[in-house]
Here is the input.
Amino acid sequence: MGHGSSKEDDSSSSSSSDADTKPSRISRLKQKLHLHRHHHHHHRKRDSSHQKLHDADDFAGIALLTLINAEMKFKDKWLACVSFGEQTFRTKISDQTDKPFWNCERKLLLERNGPHVARISVFETNKLSKNNLIGYCEINLLDYLARDSDSDFETFDLLDPMSSDIVVGRISLSCNFEDPIETEKNFARRILSIVDYNEDGNLSFSEFSDLINAFGNNVAASKKEELFKAADKNGDDVVSMDELAALLALQQEKEPIMNYCPVCGEPFEVSDKLNTVIHLTLCFDEGTGNQVMTGGFLTEKQASYGWMFKLSEWAHFSSYDVGLNSGSSASHILVCDRKTKRLVEELIDAKIVLSMRAIYQSKIGLGLMDKGAKEILQTISERQGRQMNSVESAKDIPKFVEFFKTFNEFFVRELKPGARPIAYMERDDVAVCAADSRLMAFKSVQDSLRFWIKGRKFSIQGLLGKEICSNAFVDGTMVIFRLAPQDYHRFHFPVSGTIEQFVNIPGCLYTVNPIAVNSKYCNVFTENKRVVSIISTSEFGKVAFVAIGATMVGSITFVKKEGDIVKKGDEFGYFSFGGSTVICVFEKDAIEIDDDLLANSGRSLETLVSVGMTLGVSKKKQAGARLPTLDSCVLGD
Here is the structure.
């Protein structure tokens, strides 16, 4: 840890040169404390912002996860990634081998109501472009830490990403648990190791002074003697590791020694002792001796890219972030998986992304649409629809599926009964998600325009049409369910009630991809072909349900008719081949949308949901009613 150079400086200094050598020594200490500040700086800054614990009672501890080694079926240079919540970390790249050894570790904050499942992915490397995912496994860390085992590590099967029935290798890992007291002590131990020049496990006043100066807190620096005496509980003129831990904890409650993180520079809240200790523990990587995984990535795909992608990021040809993306940034669509609370990247062919950006995010592209390209899209979609209904289309169905006559039959297939449990089935005051989709929810249309929809002149009246739209809808809550081609393409009722009417609205067949929705040059939702239905309910008033067609989706089929009494979770209809969207509009003050959905939408981040998950609760009967939680929703396979 560089102790040798510190000793050399210490021994070579004299009383006459102390003034000259001390500033340089303090500078070196600050450099050690800021060891990772300039490495992946933009990633680290974003990474640290995700370490905030909002409720102290939710703190479950800190897990130290170590990826030790793996056994693969062929030789290559390997790297592994760990995705947990909205963070992804990667190991170093191994030597050319079929038994890669990493021994790379990372600390993870565990929350009782936060993410529990870590996804571990192993890639074969390609120096020029992206690396290839070979195998993965998913581990519930709380379950792992609670297991009854004497072994220091465990081995897990790595599954083929194309077929979870195939094992492609095995990976060995360990995971240890720190309680809050151990967290404080371990942080103090790592701090102490940097300034413990004689390596006796204690800090003399001189070493203690250097540490306080390195923190850069002028108030604390002026009280070094007072702080040293307060820390030296047994009066032996040195501060031990336990005494330093006690001082840091006590001062963080009274008058903090550290106002900012010495690693990433993030400011601390004076009264938030627990979050300060957690933040410092996760940020500070010194003292373990093991290789620490590189952090600051959002998804495993980003973490696994080769140097060509990193060069494009550096040159601002491409960027990787949560939220509204336009131009070149729109090549990466990130969504939050509600079940695992992990960020995932939507897979879209690069050529399709490029063409959509050229068409929907430029005046020239939309100008071409106005000069006849709309009709071309309509013709292509209709032709594709006819082709997918033909017997010949069955050749595109995966080989293991044999009982569908056409591709569209396969595409709109039903799920097994019970595969999508409906949350709080007995309670009509709880609304549920209407589709397997990427969801955005907004309390008002103004919020949707601020965080998501950037089309010109979007309005609820334009979406629903003058025939149906009422003033209550204009100021109401809007929920967008975006279905991708790989999703289950049947949509269901979010509420119980009676179908009052259907209204067909002709239009275009623009794509419903965020690249188009986030474009300021077009109005996807108000210009596309759609069918608006009104559901009358006792709990939510009237609910508008809008099924919107899209490119390659020329057909919207309903299995219910006007006058039918329906139950939430019942099937309502389906889209034929392609991506598509459902929008539900609730009357003003009719529904309280779940907090996690609103929070993600407020960050312009779609949430991956399944049919039957909770959406919100009626405001009419909230008094005394228990709000639904995601824990109540158990997904089937």
